[in-house]
Amino acid sequence: MNAVTTDAAVAAAADRLKLTEIFLSLQGEARDAGWPTVFVRLTGCPLRCQYCDTAYAFHGGQWREIDAILDEVAGYGVRHVCVTGGEPLAQKRCIVLLRRLCDAGYRVSLETSGALDIGSVDPRVSRVLDIKTPGSAEAHRNRWENLPLLTAHDQVKFVLCGRTDYEWARDVLREHALPARCEVLFSPSNDELDARELADWIVADRLPVRFQMQLHKLLWNDEPGR
């Protein structure tokens, strides 16, 4: 292989991402809940949360050029785009995709575990940062250096598995003054915490957080592509 061919191959690889799926649905959670949204699900995740509902995105996937991804997103004709995973930031070129989606005029959100550096994400992107609780079995992976980077444009999400998780999250909320930085969301983990019980705790403590349930699961359960 000559040098010209090698350079072309490297350039082509630099414009690709490994993709699990692209689909249109309603955004089921966070600030944009209810909006028709194109989901771009990237493949791969370094975490193994015990309650994960997208383990099918850990492996497999297909390499797609970023231009082709943008073309497919455009074909759906909606304004909102959510880049998710897996853990999308595990692929370095996710940063390029996010920037190009913003350049194309979309309202872009990123769902990330919070275990990887968010500092390079385009500031036009709403970063939905999932802080892992002890019940997730991945709390040791939290990158606390991300928290000072958050702005009012971003969101923090806690998925809670029980009272211990709730009290832990409540302490993190106060220690890091998170409600002063961005919107904070508390969600019950499916089948592990009764939603009404969590709602009662939030009300009793007057926590400055937003209770949420996953709208897409209420509508379609775990149907793929919904």
UniProtKB/TrEMBL annotation:
SUPFAM superfamilies per record: Radical SAM enzymes (SSF102114)
Residues reported in the UniProt entry to bind Mg(2+): T54
EC code(s) of this entry: 4.3.99.3
Acyltransferase is among the record's keywords: no
Entry binding sites for S-adenosyl-L-methionine: Y51, C52, D53, G86
Any GO MF annotation of the entry: lyase activity
Origin: domain of life: Bacteria
InterPro entries found in the cross-reference section: 7-CO-7-deazaguanine_synth-like, Aldolase_TIM, rSAM, rSAM_QueE_gams, rSAM_sf
Pathway, per record: Purine metabolism; 7-cyano-7-deazaguanine biosynthesis
Protein residues bound to [4Fe-4S] cluster: C45, C49, C52
Binding residue positions for substrate: L26, Q27, G28, R41, T84
Reactions catalysed: 6-carboxy-5,6,7,8-tetrahydropterin + H(+) = 7-carboxy-7-carbaguanine + NH4(+)
Keywords, ordered alphabetically: 4Fe-4S, Iron, Iron-sulfur, Lyase, Magnesium, Metal-binding, Queuosine biosynthesis, S-adenosyl-L-methionine
Required cofactor names: Mg(2+); [4Fe-4S] cluster; S-adenosyl-L-methionine
A UniProt-annotated Pfam family: Radical_SAM
Domain Radical SAM core: 32-226
Function: Catalyzes the complex heterocyclic radical-mediated conversion of 6-carboxy-5,6,7,8-tetrahydropterin (CPH4) to 7-carboxy-7-deazaguanine (CDG), a step common to the biosynthetic pathways of all 7-deazapurine-containing compounds.
Family, as annotated: Belongs to the radical SAM superfamily. 7-carboxy-7-deazaguanine synthase family.
Subunit field text: Homodimer.
Name the UniProt record assigns to this protein: 7-carboxy-7-deazaguanine synthase
Organism of this sequence: Luteimonas salinilitoris
Lineage, broadest ranks: Bacteria, Pseudomonadati, Pseudomonadota, Gammaproteobacteria, Lysobacterales
Name of the gene: queE
